[in-house]
Amino acid sequence: INHLSFNEIDIGDYRTFLKFDPPVRGEDDRQATIEALASGLIDIVVSAHAPAPAEDKRLPYDEAAPGAVGLQTLLAALLAFHHEGRIPLIDLMRTVTSRPADLLGLAAGRLAKGAPADLVLCDLNAPIVIDLEKLKSKSRNSPFDGRRLQGEVKMTLVDGRVVYAPADRQSS
Fold it and tell me: Distance (Å, rounded) from C-alpha 132 to C-alpha 144?
């Protein structure tokens, strides 16, 4: 998702939260990657969740560790392409559900009788602002910090069990 969402200009004054391996490229490359996703040439999108401790990121750019947190930002970042009208919602959802499951030979990633009940309840249009202080990861290095997106996760179930729900939804 990082390479679909950022380009080398976003690095600015060598923002280490945008240091990845491989590194982000120019805007033409980012647009070509989005087009490859839209055409189906790219069929899986991953969070690239590779957190690094703050002390490994708060170094000069050349010395900083690559990587960033990504699990909590993947869905909203991916939904940006739906909201922009670039890629149909169903096609985007396949890139993070059934296609990865198919590649790995898993019964997951789809709603079907006998399949694991792995679900995300999301308000597709709810605006959110990514805030490092609110991320659940032990690491707090996200290139999306401060970015305004749409798509608030309300609840997550894994195999039918609630594994995430905001405190105000826990009792419902």
Answer: 9
Determine the straight-line distance between the first and last CA of the chain, rounded to whole angstroms.
32
Question: Would you tell me the crossing angle of helices 74-83 and 27-39 to the nearest 10 degrees?
Answer: 80
Tell me the per-residue pLDDT of 102-160, one tens digit each, with 9 for 90 and over: 999 998 888 888 888 899 999 999 999 999 888 888 788 899 999 999 999 999 999 99
Question: How many residues does this entry show for the chain?
Answer: 172
pTM of the entire predicted model: 0.89
- Domain 2-169, what architecture? Alpha-Beta Barrel (3.20)
| Residue boundaries of the structural domains of the chain | 2-169
Distance CA 88, CA 170 (A): 32
